[in-house]
Specification:
mainly alpha; about 525 residues
Length: about 525
């Protein structure tokens, strides 16, 4: 009830059900950062581009910067516990225009994240069916796999956060158990390793960059590909209106999931790197690390191999579910504030399932159509590596800019001694918050700039045109919203013109239970 009253004070009715607890939300947040799925799908290409130093040097750097960024985002989530996430954080710290930019960038970045995940998973499922079952269904099988992925993810999200939270919690627990089994297997059953630990520094003869890349550019590309695994670091923030005691549970979920992912991921990736046989192919052999990782388990029998295969598929599928949940909540929050087209429809909440049903369907349809179009361009074959790289770079750039805007606005306010009491929640870093925010903004800006630097010129031109058109639409919407009653009140934040009495009348259709 206290959570409901806090939400009413901001100007929103409690329509969504607060089913998420600490374990469920941590599970969703940790599932957003896919460790085992990332080892299968992203580790090989990243290593092939930059060599072992991508893990030995690059991963600790990414982990440190990821934890610092998570701390900055956690502080904002503690102060503003709404479904809008980055959109409302930027709106509160930098005003309506910045809120619109951050919200739409975050929405588009999450859509790209979902598209990339499901494209890779569909490609991998096709390869598994071809090698294990001897079945090659042709190009139409790719489309069928994509449709099944998006349909099942939409159905789970429509069913509500209660089911999503339970499955996410189970998924994260299974990931940790599989991680432990892998560690024990490598250390106890497969010792000694193929290569020494020193290879991670990149000075060993088998290390270095792949032919055709400079060591610097290969290292940066590899780090950017691994940065894809940290995207989704703030997904827990979008679930704040469906979480009990969100000012405490949401920030801790964001922080702990980043710490656990960085630590456990480093141990797993190092062991895979030390045991993987490169052979005569050199660094190019790393592109097959995902296949080797699966078949390696046949030493424990065909059953263990099959179980691991099914678990990794489920982990990647849940990674897509987390993206659907985050993108739909952002769209729902923006529609509720009349900052998105078809606001009345997209802001509707299902009385039966207590979810933003139409926002979930809109996200699934948009991402599904985009995936099918990209697959059609690939003529129903495996998605080209260059296309996947561009999608990863686009999602990194969009999401990092979206997160940098609210953190940067908050930092600017702190440096100019503005009254930011409304941006201080119970979870904060105190005097160290300024330094964390400064590091976060610098890192997010640099990584976004690096992503743009490696984009295809045609993609860059398309982005420029899209940004110009999007900027005009955002400016038009911004001027339209200025005519409405201001959302800010002295000493606090108010996002809606609704009174508490109006919120209570709406809530009669959505009783908490």
């Amino acid at each position: 009830m206290q959570d409901k009253h806090d939400l009413n004070g901001i100007g929103f009715a409690q329509q969504l059900t607060r089913h998420m607890g600490g374990l469920s939300l941590f599970g969703l947040s940790f599932t957003s950062l896919s460790m085992l799925g990332g080892a299968v799908l992203f580790l090989g290409p990243a290593l092939a581009a930059g060599g072992p130093a991508v893990i030995g040097v690059g991963w600790p750097v990414l982990t440190f910067l990821g934890i610092v960024t998570a701390s900055s985002l956690a502080a904002l989530a503690s102060a503003i516990p709404t479904a809008g996430g980055c959109y409302h954080w930027a709106l509160s710290a930098g005003g309506r225009r910045m809120g619109l930019w951050s919200g739409w960038l975050h929405f588009l970045g999450t859509i790209l994240l979902l598209v990339t995940t499901n494209l890779l998973l569909a490609d991998w499922l096709y390869k598994v069916m071809e090698t294990r079952l001897g079945y090659a269904g042709g190009g139409e099988l790719y489309y069928a796999l994509l449709i099944v992925l998006f349909l099942t993810q939409a159905l789970l999200n429509v069913r509500g956060v209660h089911s999503l939270g339970k499955i996410a919690g189970i998924s994260s627990g299974l990931q940790l158990l599989v991680w432990l089994a892998i560690i024990l297997f490598f250390v106890a059953a497969a010792w000694p390793a193929s290569y020494p630990f020193q290879m991670l520094s990149g000075t060993d003869p088998i290390a270095g960059s792949a032919p055709g890349n400079s060591s610097q550019s290969g290292m940066l590309i590899g780090m950017l590909m691994l940065q894809r695994l940290f995207l989704g670091i703030d997904h827990a923030g979008q679930m704040a209106e469906e979480t009990r005691d969100p000012r405490i549970i949401v920030p801790w979920s964001i922080f702990f999931s980043s710490v656990a992912f960085g630590l456990f991921g480093f141990i797993l990736f190092v062991l895979l790197l030390m045991w993987f046989p490169l052979g005569s192919e050199g660094l190019y052999g790393y592109s097959d690390i995902g296949t080797w990782f699966i078949t390696f388990w046949t030493k424990w029998g065909a059953m263990s191999n099959t179980i691991l295969l099914l678990l990794i598929i489920s982990f990647m599928w849940m990674n897509g579910n987390a993206s659907v949940a985050a993108a739909s909540r952002t769209l729902f929050a923006m529609a509720r504030d009349e900052a998105a087209p078809f606001s009345n429809r997209l802001s509707a909440v299902s009385v039966l399932y207590r979810t933003p049903l139409r926002a979930v369907l809109a996200v699934s349809i948009v991402a599904g159509v985009a995936s099918l179009v990209l697959k059609a361009v690939a003529a129903g074959a495996m998605t080209p590596q260059t296309t996947l790289l561009q999608l990863i770079l686009l999602s990194v750039a969009a999401l990092h800019i979206a997160m940098a805007l609210p953190i940067g606005a908050k930092l600017y306010g702190e440096m100019t001694n503005r009254n930011l009491s409304k941006l201080k929640g119970p979870w904060n870093l105190g005097a160290y918050g300024v330094f964390a925010d400064a590091i976060s903004v610098c890192w997010l800006s640099i990584s976004a700039a690096a992503a743009f630097a490696f984009m295809n010129p045609v993609v860059l031109l398309s982005i420029t045109i899209a940004v110009l058109i999007g900027g005009l639409l955002i400016e038009w919407k911004y001027r339209a919203l200025l005519k409405k009653v201001p959302f800010k009140v002295v000493g606090s934040i108010r996002f809606s013109r609704r009174s508490i009495d109006e919120c209570i009348r709406i809530e009669r259709k959505f009783p908490q239970h």
